[in-house]
Write a structure and sequence with these properties.
Elements (H helix, E strand, L loop, with lengths): L11 H11 L9 H38 L2 H6 L1 H22 L3 H5 L2 E5 L14 H16 L2 H8 L6 H6 L1 E5 L8
Antiparallel strand pairs: 1-2
Helix pairs in contact: 1-2, 2-4, 4-6
Amino acid sequence: MPNKPVSSKPRFRTIKKLYKQSQALNPEQRPSTYNTIAREIFVARRLKALLVDIFMIYTPILYCTYWILGGAQEFRQSQLAIALCFGAYAGICALFIAKSGQTPGLRYVRLKLVDQSFLPKSTTNPQVGFWRAFVRMFVWAFSYAIAIGFIVPFISKSHQCLHDSLMHTKIIDVDEPTQNT
């Protein structure tokens, strides 16, 4: 059996292990590469949460709508059906966020959406209300539809997405609440 070629890129598990080891160090002692790795892992976890939410929440909504309308072709021709499906998805996600701060995807990857204005003041993270979470979903969709949502996290100092900055929310790690402030 031939040997596999060794990749110059470290595996995700190795990166995650190095990140956890770096968390034991003081923030001043951490090399900047650890902060970069931490940001990459955080982005990967957010993307994983989005995919889980799409498959668990949005896909069943779409299939039910296809069934009601009689097929995918009728769905594509109906702009109202598309808007109602996204509105239902946004409403369900907003309900999850208002209740626990987590959608099923965020819960799976151990992240939580909290109100950013209260983070430094208290150890408990206050919930984001339904309407703010609902509007946040539409700001998210609009910012990514016009492609500015892809650019903002890379040029902002806080590395926050546009929808989080505008709605004064923040995604934090559930396991490390002290490191998220």
